[in-house]
Amino acid sequence: MKKPAARRRLPRDEREQLIAREAVAFFSECGFDGHTRELARRLGITQPLLYRYFRNKEALIDRVYQEVYLNRWNPRWEELLDDRTRPLEGRLLELYLDYSHMILRYEWIRIWMFSGLKGMDLNSRFLGLLRERIFARVIREIRHAHHLPSPDDIPISEMEFELVWALHASIFYIGVRRWIYGLEIPENTDAVVEALTRAFLDGVPAVIAALTRGPLAPATR
Amino acid sequence: MKKPAARRRLPRDEREQLIAREAVAFFSECGFDGHTRELARRLGITQPLLYRYFRNKEALIDRVYQEVYLNRWNPRWEELLDDRTRPLEGRLLELYLDYSHMILRYEWIRIWMFSGLKGMDLNSRFLGLLRERIFARVIREIRHAHHLPSPDDIPISEMEFELVWALHASIFYIGVRRWIYGLEIPENTDAVVEALTRAFLDGVPAVIAALTRGPLAPATR
DNA sequence: GCGGCTATCTATCAAGTGATAAGTAGGGTT
DNA sequence: AACCCTACTTATCACTTGATAGATAGCCGC
Questions:
Q1: Which of A163, A167, A203 is nearest to A93 (CA)?
Q2: How far apart are CA B159 and CA A209, in angstroms?
Q3: CB contact under 8 A, A166 and B168
Q4: What mean pLDDT, rounded, does chain B reach?
Q5: Is the predicted pLDDT of residue B6 greater than 60, yes or no?
Q6: What is the pLDDT of residues A126-175, one digit of tens each?
Q7: What are A101-120's pLDDT values in tens digits?
Q8: What's the average model confidence in pLDDT over B100-124?
Q9: Per the confidence metrics, is the pTM higher than 0.90?
Q10: Exposed, middle or buried by CB within 10 Å (0-12, 13-18, 19+), for A78?
Q11: What letter would DSSP give residue B131?
Q12: CB atoms < 10 A from the CB of A210, how many?
């Protein structure tokens, strides 16, 4: 209720930011087929004004991606996992809590899914990064903490990756339930993420131990 | 390469089925904003012909839902879980393998997500059923197999439901990776579903045991 | 093979949909 | 207070898109 109407003649930068912010909210609600007229209506401006700030609809959508995803990768996640002075459980809890705070948001989850369904490569590129930089490290550190062979000696198997995918899925799906299906979820999502991470750490090392001894199907990608 | 062109003047029922089947493939690929002209083009017919078989686009989409979801609920799942003459592990494996065969398909997963993003109540209604009929039973049977209090005595807690959601998420996400992100997944998905279910049964009962003894936060819905 | 039923097509409408051009007016500068 | 830059609006285009009306022609029964 700050402004009755963010009206006429704003400085260029300010208007651009207003548009970008509303575009994030709008496209995350309606998908990228949402109409520019409706977006303009929500901004309290006319539709042609959008085109004074963005060359076309595609440029506007690019900006939305930039706002929601760009530079959200936290290099600390990798450092965190590498820091063997700390117990593994603490490292994993911090990682997954932090990561969940990033992805368990309306805009993040929905634009992520819209983007995936549209076949953008954003998703596969990000998940490729996640797999190589995070998942592989998680498995490496679990093996190390349990005195199992390093991935340098025995490559990470497909099934080991699947177990880490499963934890990732469990966390991500909290957001899907809340922001896509519109279901109620527990108020304290941190507690759930924590419980899931602990359960993972309780159960998975034994499986990995069995895998690094048994016949292995190394991950193909 | 059977038919050069499935041409003119088919019997009414046959044409209707052709349209319905192609509509499933088409809308699962393009989403419900896909254009009727493009659908007609894929069918090798003109766009107005669609309207001789379906009152409007909405009716066509209703038919797609019907084709993909209606009458797919298998009452056997409930009977299966109730059958205490069989070991719990066998029952859960059969349940989740069968369920995964239903949902881990291109059309099922994508239309499911499109529907969720559009805010259809299909998703929440189906998941409500799943929660009450399946999840609650899974927890009840785990408790019973481990000589823990029945849900009649100690209601199922929020966290217990979360653990079952997590298994569901892990399985569902295999389909999301494959059919929405376009990632490679293990060839033998049955083996993965089996491993996830076993891991669930290995780890979760201990957590549930702790929960039914510790202070409980009963599930609110 | 011919007549008629109707599956299918051609032509077209009306409402929208992204985008552009040219006019209007707000507000900082002097 | 007059001026001018440009943020913003009005008017409009070209194309798309769901939907309808009427013409055309394939196929079954005789």
A1: A167
A2: 28
A3: no
A4: 93
A5: no
A6: 999 999 999 999 999 999 999 999 999 999 999 999 999 999 999 999 99
A7: 999 999 999 999 999 999 99
A8: 97
A9: yes
A10: middle
A11: I
A12: 10
Chain A positions in Cβ-Cβ contact with residue B191 (cut-off 8 Å): 159
Rounded CA separation A122/B214 (Å): 44
Q: Which among A33, A116, A159 has CB closest to B181? A: A116
B45 in contact with nucleic chain C (CB within 7 A): yes
- The residues, any chain, with a CB within 8 Å of residue A184's CB and separated by 6 or more, are A178, B220, B221
Interface check for B6 against chain A (CB to CB < 8 A): the answer is no
| B220 pLDDT tier (thresholds 50, 70, 90) | low
Rounded to an integer, what is the distance from CA B200 to the centroid of its chain?
Answer: 19
Residue partners of B68: CB distance under 8 A and separation at least 6: B24, B28, B107, B108, B111
B53: Cβ contacts below 8 Å, ≥ 6 apart: B12, B15, B16, B19
Segment B151-167 shows an average pLDDT of 96
Q: Does B120 touch chain A (CB under 8 A)?
A: no
Average pLDDT score over residue span B5-13: 75
For strand C, the positions having any atom within 7 A of a protein Cβ are: 6-11, 16-22, 26-27
Residue A90: count of CB within 10 angstroms of its CB: 11
A window 10-39, beta carbon within 8 A of B: 31, 33
Interhelix angle B106-117/B122-129, rounded to 10 degrees, is 110
Please tell me the predicted confidence (pLDDT) of residue B88: 97
Query: Which nucleotide across the nucleic acid strands is nearest to B53, CA versus C1'?
Result: C7
Nearest chain B residue to A203 by CA distance is: B203
Q: Are B202 and A203 in contact (CB under 8 A)?
A: yes
**DSSP H stretches of helix in chain A:** 12-30, 36-43, 47-53, 57-68, 76-82, 88-103, 106-118, 122-129, 136-145, 158-179, 189-213
Residue % of chain A over a pLDDT of 90: 86
End-to-end CA distance of chain B: 53
* CA A130 and chain centroid, separation: 9
**Which helix (H) or strand (E) element contains residue A93?**
helix A88-103
Q: Which residues contact A61 (CB under 8 A, 6 or more apart)?
A: A23, A27, A32
- Contact of A129 with chain B, judged by CB distance below 8 Å, is answered with no
Helix (H, G, I), strand (E, B) or coil at A148: coil
Is A189 near chain B, with CB under 8 Å? no
For residue B133 the two structure tokens come to 């009929």
